[in-house]
Amino acid sequence: MKIFNREPALWLNSLSALLGLLVTFNVGLTEVQAGWLVAGVSAILGAVAAALTRPIAVQAFTAVVATVASAVAAFGYEVQPTTTAAINGVVLAILMFITRGQVSPVVPTRQPSGPQSV
Question: What is the reported pTM?
Answer without folding.
Answer: 0.68
